[in-house]
TrEMBL record:
It is a multi-pass membrane protein. It is found in: Cell membrane. This is Binding-protein-dependent transport systems inner membrane component. The keyword Secreted does not apply. Keywords: Cell membrane, Membrane, Transmembrane, Transmembrane helix, Transport. It comes from Methyloversatilis universalis (strain ATCC BAA-1314 / DSM 25237 / JCM 13912 / CCUG 52030 / FAM5).
Length: 247
């Protein structure tokens, strides 16, 4: 019972602070009344029930899946190679650490110049943001593998391909899933600002549109939905990770 009461109490406290903050701001700026909990909840209900928001949601989720798939396709092989080859790790680690510290959003102008407007630059930004936790966690998993597993594979005349797919990847799945979970959180944070440039649909575009239309209650409703969807994605990632550990 306590595990249910405490989260609800935390949400209730946040709701009260939100309402109090909106009421205080309304005294100085009457337009702030649209940011209050009740107008925002009403706008969210209308948007969800009316279906105007769902096309933006599906498109944003599609971009997240594509960006995550690209990050996995790039990060896992590079992580395995980094963990298995000391020379490759020594030659690439400074570069990877340098690129990892560059904000993905700083690439937005270059991405649009090279890839044009549309989904392509968004995919690039999401993949760039998500690849690093996957790559680093994969490399860390390879480094922590029991060396006896690799020696056993060699003694059985396993090929390089067989060693990777039958020994290394099954042994580091937990680390890959941890990296994927971290990547999902990063992608979801980068998604909204990435969709504010050069696209005509998506949650980021919808938030900008509500600002331009001065529909502030809808803006807050979109922010609430972004938080709820992000929480749901993280919950799915945590569940997959927990099930793998149990298995």
């Amino acid at each position: 019972m306590l595990r249910l009461i405490l989260p609800l109490a935390g949400l209730a406290a946040a709701l009260l602070l939100w309402a109090a903050g909106a009421a205080w701001l309304t005294q100085r700026m009457p337009v702030a009344a649209d940011f209050a909990p009740l107008p925002s909840a009403d706008a969210l209900w209308q948007l969800v029930g009316g279906g105007d928001l769902w096309p933006h949601v599906w498109l944003s989720l599609k971009r997240v899946l594509v960006g995550l798939a690209l990050a996995i396709a790039i990060g896992v092989p590079l992580g395995v190679l980094t963990g298995l080859s000391k020379r490759f790790a020594q030659g690439t680690t400074p570069l990877f650490q340098f690129l990892r510290m560059v904000s993905p959003l700083s690439w937005m102008p270059l991405a649009v110049m090279v890839l044009g407007v549309g989904d392509a630059p968004v995919y690039f930004l999401l993949a760039f943001a998500a690849v690093w936790p996957i790559l680093l966690n994969t490399a860390s998993g390879v480094a922590q593998l029991d060396p006896n597993w690799l020696l056993l594979a060699r003694s059985l005349s396993a090929t390089r391909r067989e060693t990777v797919f039958r020994v290394v990847l099954p042994g580091i799945t937990e680390h890959i899933l941890t990296g994927v979970r971290l990547a999902i959180g990063i992608i979801w944070i980068v998604l909204v600002p990435a969709e504010m440039l050069g696209v005509s649909a998506g949650l980021g575009y919808f938030i900008l549109d509500t600002r331009d239309r001065l529909a502030y209650s809808e803006l807050m409703a979109a922010i609430l939905l972004v938080g709820a969807l992000g929480y749901a994605l993280d919950y799915l990632a945590r569940t997959a990770h927990a099930r793998w550990l149990h298995r």
